[in-house]
Design brief:
The structure is a single chain. 38% of the residues lie in helices and 26% in strands. The chain is an alpha/beta fold. The protein has one domain: Rossmann fold, CATH 3.40.50. The strands form two sheets. Strands 6-7-8-3-9-10 form a six-stranded mixed sheet, sandwiched between helices. The model has no long low-confidence stretch (mean pLDDT 93). The structure holds adenosine-5'-triphosphate and magnesium ion. Magnesium ion binds at residues 44-45. This is ABC transporter ATP-binding protein. It comes from Oscillibacter valericigenes. Residues 2-241 form the ABC transporter domain. One of its GO terms (molecular function) is ATP binding.
Length: 247
């Protein structure tokens, strides 16, 4: 589904080059829910922005489905972003002037693909994520957790291959975080969504199938949940983070 191979990315600031990603390789299988953790500044957002094609990469390969992203034209990339990727951000990024339902439809509106089927899908997504009662409200009239569930529904409207989420629970209290994580689990279970989520939160990460920990520009460790229960997996994540501090 998603393959990242030996990805290198540096930023040029004045005359200095900062190497941020120094050979990151990972894969995400269809239907997997994968988290990326790592210290602040370890390159998590940079990795996500490379996969989103928001920033150019120095070297390496990113393959989404069958497509090598580096080979695509600007037009083709815009299509990939609109149709094959869904985005969820820390600060929701809903449009204030649109209702919940209109916000959910936005990627389809931008892509020029709104049909009665898309509208039915928007209603189905509201249903799946428990926001039907508020679908005619505006973002200013709903809670943070509701906003983020609306953002998750929006990310799914075009049946994307992959959802990319950067700290989706970063601005939420634990109850709303739980609701948002539940919406990802539902997206995975009932809509066969594939999710790649950056998070600092070991609680949120403990719901994932796999957690990739970045450090110093590379993959430091990957933890597989397997048949471990959630609480034990969270303990394993916390242990790993503690180990990293000791090294
Ligand atoms: N546009 C940019 N220009 C120069 N340096 C940048 C730029 N964006 C990020 N960096 C640097 O690259 C490094 C990685 O940043 P990145 O935002 O990917 O980290 P992160 O792991 O997402 O951190 P956080 O957990 O704080 O969100 C940091 O040292 C940051 O200062
Ligand atoms: Mg970040």
């Amino acid at each position: 589904m998603l393959t990242v191979k030996d990805l290198h990315k540096s930023y040029q600031v004045g005359k200095t080059t900062y190497e941020v990603l120094k050979g990151v390789s990972l894969t995400v299988e269809k239907g997997e829910f994968v988290a990326v953790m790592g210290p602040s500044g370890s390159g998590k957002t940079t990795l996500l922005n490379c996969i989103s094609c928001y920033i150019p990469i120095d070297s390496g390969e990113i393959t989404l489905g069958e497509k090598q992203l580096a080979d695509l034209s600007e037009d083709a990339l815009a299509k990939v972003r609109n149709r094959q990727l869904g985005f969820v951000f820390q600060d929701f990024l809903l449009l204030d002037g649109l209702t919940v339902r209109e916000n959910i439809l936005l990627p389809a509106i931008i892509g020029g693909t709104v049909t009665s089927q898309t509208e039915a899908r928007a209603d189905q997504l509201c249903d799946v994520f428990g926001i039907t009662a508020i679908r005619d409200k505006y973002p200013a009239e709903i809670s943070g957790g509701e906003k983020q569930r609306c953002a998750v529904a929006r990310a799914l409207i075009n049946h994307p291959l992959l959802i990319l989420a950067d700290e989706p629970t970063g601005n939420l209290d634990s109850k709303s975080s739980r609701a948002v994580i539940r919406s990802f689990e539902q997206a995975k279970a009932s809509l066969e969504a594939t999710i790649f989520m950056v998070t600092h939160d070991s609680f949120a990460a403990s719901f994932c199938d796999r957690v990739v920990i970045l450090r110093d520009g590379g993959v430091w460790r990957t933890l597989e949940k397997g048949s471990t229960d959630r609480a034990a997996f969270q303990d394993a994540l916390l242990d790993a983070i503690r180990d990293m501090g000791k090294e």
